[in-house]
């Protein structure tokens, strides 16, 4: 199986490395600066689940250098989707399916419109990972899950191929038969988690200590559940309660990737996540006052 990773950042380098370790052929399609960094320092993974060094990582800077691929593992940030689209398109024209693992939901319909519905699988990840100053991956969470599944019947074969690969892979890969529901569950969770941690500039511990602050996160979960319901996705109060429990069970210093990006003064995905929710709500005549307030609080920190 030939997998092209577009976006060899924390997620792309981690999962790409694990795919290679499991026996897949992996090509990293990167931009010039990242290509130089990988050439100079290699592509190593330091992980709670076992370290791995990718020997001679295959890197290219343009899709025209690739003859054909089975899958594009798309792990750019939401604000880089447009810039990556030409390369993704070229690979789809050469026969690849696309597995986007970005947080959020708007990118799914953007990709479907640009590439055709049959090309785009559903995907999401649970992991806490970041790149260090050498561009190596530091994976710090006890979990490293990749959930994938078909959004169209034509995707059965590629999903089965991924399931086969999962048998050899040092990651938890879950082949979901209800991937739209899983995408919305994660969207609900991450909008509340990244919203409250980034807006307060605090990890989850102190947020749980103050019921008034936790209440804001809970209200965002409720709003996102109502938004999902408007799009005929059956999120329920049980899902909201599970997300709340999960917040309370996290390590006190656990935080979102968006909050980590705020700490590092990097560009934030707030328009893709919270802005996206507000656009989807407006299209259905729904108001999301807590989500909108948190969006407003994060906005001044959006641009690096
Ligand atoms: N990090 C985490 O723990 C988690 C992240 N996520 C989600 O996963 C997605 C990716 O996040 P993360 O891996 O942290 O982000 P990173 O910023 O670490 O990685 C994104 C990578 O995309 C690259 N990129 C951007 N545009 C292009 C392009 N046109 N062609 C090739 N490469 C490109 C960037 O390269 P360059 O160096 O050139 O800028 C960068 O290396 C986000 O949506 C995030 O919310 C989800 C779960 C956990
Ligand atoms: C919540 C978490 C860590 C789960 O993967 C995440 O997706 C993020 O912070 O971006």
Automatic annotation (TrEMBL):
NADP found in the keyword field: yes
Ketopantoate reductase C-terminal domain mapped to chain residues: 179-300
Organism superkingdom: Bacteria
Pathways involved: Cofactor biosynthesis; (R)-pantothenate biosynthesis; (R)-pantoate from 3-methyl-2-oxobutanoate: step 2/2
Pfam entry (one): ApbA_C
EC category: oxidoreductase
Keywords, sorted A to Z: NADP, Oxidoreductase, Pantothenate biosynthesis
Known EC number: 1.1.1.169
Catalytic activity: (R)-pantoate + NADP(+) = 2-dehydropantoate + NADPH + H(+)
Annotated InterPro entries: 6-PGluconate_DH-like_C_sf (IPR008927), 6PGD_dom2 (IPR013328), ApbA (IPR003710), KPA_reductase (IPR013752), KPR-Related (IPR051402), KPR_N (IPR013332), NAD(P)-bd_dom_sf (IPR036291)
Stretches assigned to the Ketopantoate reductase N-terminal domain: 3-152
The keyword Oxidoreductase appears for this protein: yes
SUPFAM superfamilies named in the record: 6-phosphogluconate dehydrogenase C-terminal domain-like, NAD(P)-binding Rossmann-fold domains
GO molecular function: 2-dehydropantoate 2-reductase activity
Family: Belongs to the ketopantoate reductase family.
NCBIfam families: apbA_panE (TIGR00745)
Stated role: Catalyzes the NADPH-dependent reduction of ketopantoate into pantoic acid.
Protein name: 2-dehydropantoate 2-reductase
